[in-house]
Specification:
This protein is of the alpha+beta class. It is about 45% helix and about 20% strand. The two termini are about 80 Å apart.
Length: about 450
């Protein structure tokens, strides 16, 4: 079989060269399309359902949120396992699917089932799907270097400007903010004053909620002009909150400032983010979407940051706490350097021991061709170019080189022996004359006589 393949290749040299060129071009195309990352993604094929219910204990979250969701999400096609976790004010449900299931198909099935499970949850409790990322989707961590802004202003800048801009980058699933204080209006009620004015707490909550809203009217025409009537009620400052009416006492309106004090503060925090021991910082985590190219996503995010930088206040800039592109570039540079070093080393060894440039050329051609075929297979089996796969290719280069040297040296030796045997063989001439001589015959044996 091998002899037939060799003979076929020798008889169709042009076809073999065209096939090799086509494979090399296909490999270069696959290399450009194949996702590049630093570490392989070994996480489960999962969909996360997140539910928030502020102020509830873990036991209440387990009984009224986690258990109804887990019991009703069972039966989704191709689900291997369902895990539920309850904590203070939050519930997480992890649905693990089979490895061959498309992630977005799984998310659509979960979303269909959530529409049915919604009626079993308490009012105003809405479960949501987690981002379409993976366990290794955190590709970039950044912080805001803003010495002239306090932590509340930095967090507001991150939440209402930077985050929205970076979420528009293709391949970004989510930008999660961390650090600082989330600004909020805080109303500190005085129970004594509420009791004096005979105003229940629920009435204060209803009044504040209803007064922080715009209302619509209708349109009417006057003197060939159209006018739209609407009521403006959104809160803009602390005085707006203080002047909200919450009830009446002896025909006198009672406002919020009569029963409480209003201030601007930050939400309750369960932790802080400290950067290199130099104090608190505010920033975000860029989560890459499932199956995207990490290197291209990071480059696109950095390009978007350069545009966002123009709109930041003076003295505010981005700093990177974690950047996976550095590791990616080092891995790619390592495989490129290994390939060049081995090609040069093999060329020198072959030229020294065989002293034949054609033999060296054969070995040099097969190395990039073999690597190109390897990237074709990576693209076909949806395996990213990461440290593990690139290291495997680098190790395989040594095997390819060894085999090539052995085969080429053996072929070179056989050719040399054939040429030497042909040089020492006598020249061909006429066949010598063959003379035949008759062979003597034996005397016949005497016959017996009968008397």
């Amino acid at each position: 079989m091998v002899n037939k393949l060799i003979s076929l290749a020798l008889r169709n040299r042009v076809l073999v060269l065209l096939l090799a060129a086509g494979l090399f071009g296909w490999g270069v195309y696959s290399l450009r399309r194949n996702p590049i990352d630093a570490i392989p993604d070994l996480s489960e094929n999962q969909v996360i359902v997140f539910t928030e219910w502020s102020g509830r204990s873990p036991q209440v979250m387990e009984d009224q949120v986690t258990y109804p969701l887990v019991s009703n999400l069972q039966g989704i096609p191709k689900v291997k396992n369902i895990r539920g976790t309850s904590m203070f004010g939050m519930s997480f449900v992890y649905l693990l699917f089979e490895d061959n299931v498309d992630l977005y198909w799984a998310r659509s099935r979960v979303l269909e089932r959530l529409n049915y499970a919604q009626r079993l949850l308490p009012p105003q409790v809405t479960p949501t799907l987690g981002p379409d990322g993976t366990g290794v989707g955190h590709v970039l961590w950044y912080t805001l270097d803003a010495k002239n802004l306090d932590l509340g202003e930095q967090r507001a800048l991150q939440d209402w400007y930077v985050k929205f801009a970076l979420q528009t980058v293709p391949g970004v699933s989510e930008v999660a903010s961390f650090g600082g204080f989330e600004k909020q209006y805080q109303i500190n009620l005085d129970p004594t004053k509420l009791n004096y004015y005979r105003i229940p707490l629920a009435e204060v909550l209803r009044a504040v909620k209803s007064n922080n809203n715009d209302v619509g009217g209708r349109k009417f025409e006057l003197s060939d002009m159209g006018y739209i009537v609407r009521g403006l009620g959104y809160i803009k400052n602390i005085q707006d909150v203080e002047n909200m009416p919450v009830g009446t006492f002896q025909s006198v309106p009672v406002r919020v400032k009569d029963v409480a004090t209003v201030q601007m503060g930050g939400d309750i925090r369960l932790g802080i983010f400290d950067e290199n021991g130099q104090g608190e910082a505010v920033g975000g985590i860029v989560v890459m979407r499932y199956g995207e190219n990490a290197d291209l996503v990071i480059k696109a995010v950095k390009a978007k940051m350069a545009e966002v930088q123009k709109g930041l206040p003076p003295g505010v800039k981005f700093t990177f706490a974690y950047d996976r592109s550095t590791l990616i570039e080092k891995a790619v540079a390592s495989i490129r350097g290994t390939l060049v070093e081995e090609m040069i080393t093999v060329s020198i060894i072959v030229l020294i021991f065989l002293f034949n440039w054609r033999s060296a050329l054969i070995i040099l051609i097969q190395m990039p061709l073999s690597i190109a075929i390897a990237f074709i297979l990576l693209e076909a089996f949806h395996v990213s170019s990461n440290i593990m796969s690139l290291t495997g290719i680098a190790l395989a280069i040594g095997v390819i080189v060894d085999d090539g040297i052995v085969v080429v040296e053996n072929a070179y030796r056989h050719l040399a022996e054939a040429q030497a045997a042909e040089a020492t063989a006598p020249p061909p001439g006429p066949d010598p004359e063959v003379v035949t001589y008759p062979q003597p015959t034996a005397a016949p044996a005497p016959q017996p006589t009968t008397v």
